[in-house]
Design brief:
Mean pLDDT of chain A: 72
Helix content of chain A: 40-55%
Strand content of chain C: over 45%
Shape of chain A: elongated
Number of helices of chain C: 0
Shape of chain C: globular
Strand content of chain A: 15-25%
Order of helices and strands of chain C: EEEEEEEEEE
Number of strands of chain C: 10
Helix content of chain C: under 10%
Radius of gyration of chain A: 29 Å
Chains: A alpha+beta, B alpha/beta, C mainly beta
Structural class of chain A: alpha+beta
Low-confidence stretches of chain A: 1-26, 36-45, 115-131, 387-400
Order of helices and strands of chain A: HHHHHHEEHHHEEEEEEEEH
Strand order of the largest sheet of chain A: 1-2-3-4-7
Distance between the termini of chain A: 53 Å
Radius of gyration of chain C: 21 Å
Structural class of chain C: mainly beta
Largest sheet of chain C: 7 strands, mixed
Oligomer: heterotrimer
Number of strands of chain A: 10
Largest sheet of chain A: 5 strands, antiparallel
Largest interface: A-C, 48 and 43 residues
Chain lengths: ~400, ~200, ~140
Amino acid sequence: MLSVVGHCFDCDPTLTFDVEIVQRRQTLQRWFQAFLQGRWFRGSNRRWWAGIIEAGFAAALFLAGVTLLVVNLTLSIIDRSPNDSTLYFVIYVLISITLISVGLAWIARLLWHVGVSAERRGAIAAQANELEILNELRQARDDLPTVPRDRRLPVAGQVFPFRMSPSPRNLWGLISSVLFSIIALCLCTILVLICAKSFGFGGTWVNQLEQLSERISPRKLPIPSRPWPAVALLAALIPATGWSIYHFFRQLIKLAGIGPTSIELSNYPLLPGQTYQMFISQTGRVRLQVLDVDLICQEEVTYNQGTDIRTEKAIVFEQRLLRRRGVSLESGKPFETQIELQIPQAAMHSFSSTNNRVQWKIVITAKAKNWPRLRRTFTITVHPGADPAVGKHEVAAAVS
Amino acid sequence: MTKSNPFSTRFVRPGGIPYIGLEPDEVCELAKRFIGCQMRGQIVGRHGAGKSTLTFPLAQAINNQLQEMGLAQGLDVRRIVIDSSKSIRDSTNWQPTDHTFKKLLVVDGIERLSRWHRLAMLSNLRSRSIGVLVTTHQEILELPVLIQLRPDVKTLMRLVERLAPTTIGQPGFKSHELEQLMESHNGNIRECLMALYDVYETL
Amino acid sequence: MQDPLIEIHLESDREQFAPSDFLSGEFWVRLKREHEIQALEYSVIWITEGKGEEDIGVHYFQRRNRTALVSDALSQPQRFSTVLPASPLTYEGMILKIRWCVRVRIFLSGGREVTKDREFDLGHCSIPEIDLKEQDDLPRNSE
């Protein structure tokens, strides 16, 4: 590459510039691709730290941006002198927004990247024959009073005809913890600044911030000399903020490290006494110490205790379908396996009435070192034994 | 055929289970007292003491007493449970009915309402000549106390004898075990019966 | 006052039925002179039992008011029949049980009610044995 640059420089000076640009573009492209594909942190023994560092760095960038923005805005409101330029203010706001944007983009990339394999399969699922199977399933439920309908109907799978709806990833949990962290952090930052200013702490950095804000502030808000309520509130808020940030990190790391789980079944709905083939796929980028797949039947009832309503659950059947130790999950290479699933002969079908329920579930649990425990649940429907709709589904599956 | 568990909720819920703590004569006396207090009164007791259960035979006794005294041809009873939603408007919105029938509102868990809410409701019921029988964990000032319930292990034993006479003396149903059960559930009869459901399943 | 007697019989004294089976039978109501009947209901229902609140599902229901009851109609057995549904099946669980029955309820003057149930099984489901296996690296797995 150097020789090319030298040669080009000799013959046409402008070309060097162009070539350099191309080189930079290529480098940037490689860097960006590596970033998108998560190649920076490849290597089996470093995956855990890679996940932690990457998620932590992304979250830290985001939170730093939020803090900077809040500090800037707070100081500009607390102390503003009308005659100074708004240049510094604008610069700080831009830096904050950049940090927040990069942090958010990184978090989004982490979440997207881990789940890429399952998403690909999700795209395959959008096939024409899907509608036919779904209509069959809808019709079947009408013939079976008290057998609950699936909240989300299965779609066509890649290995087997019925792909169960993946258990939802706790994105709302992440969003709520982000929002809570932001609010707590904002309040905390504002209170720290108010307290530091009123007590004369902070030394140079507060003074510098004050000087800075004096240049750009058009008005002043009066701050009491000793704001004890603010101090008390701050004391209560610091642990809450710390906890919310810890919770946010935990949620993010969990989502970034262990991706979606998907299962596919050879036939659906299930019938007592029948054996089925099941395909399991788990994406992510951690090394799981142990991965368990269990079939569970659970009774759930609600009753009134005086003026309270209580719910009680009892697991009446539990069968381990698979236990696998040392499962290595890598980006783009999910753990995949096929196992057999049998519903016991005299087992109760899925049932739901106002206060009572029988539910069948496939529960996938996994444990990785220094990682929050994974538990994914797929609610499956078991029909009563003599189900006239079975034949129809088998035909539909064969057609698909 | 399915084997019934006598401690199922359908058998032990208020209205489905007899009230064991009082003799019929005592319930009658309570009904007379309630009518004497202008059809207003409260039953006080902790969780699972049998307050709601007592309202059923008491309402029946009030009905009988009103008929015997010639005060009414019958009793129109409505029940509301004050839960977190605290929706009482629909239940108290009586349509005009036969005036020969007295109206009675049974309110379960009135202590959950705020004092102002309680006062508003009680004054509304009084202005419409509707009787009110309430259950509460703590005594409230607005209504006369009819009875304070304090169930003991004997009440539980009599109840078990009534619900499942064959179980007495069997593992889990011996008197000292019932005493322990009562102690561990702080005298909450309802929770004891729930625990006995599980014990019965193992027999 | 003595309660009226109600007797319910299922055809062939059958107790076990399968989904979509034909259920038929008859019932008698033996009234005393002092009994004044207001209405009569007969139904085929399922009931939940256990720790939860009771849920009832009505599969078949008939009601006859006093005006519809001919004076000596109840001296004859009353027949009923229905095709049973596919679910829910009779279940004997841990904290939940589901029972099927034919229920006859008569309403007497003065607000009194008398009810009689005749149970039967629609299929029969029970709790399978708990089988918590420790299976490491099953040979049938194909990765």
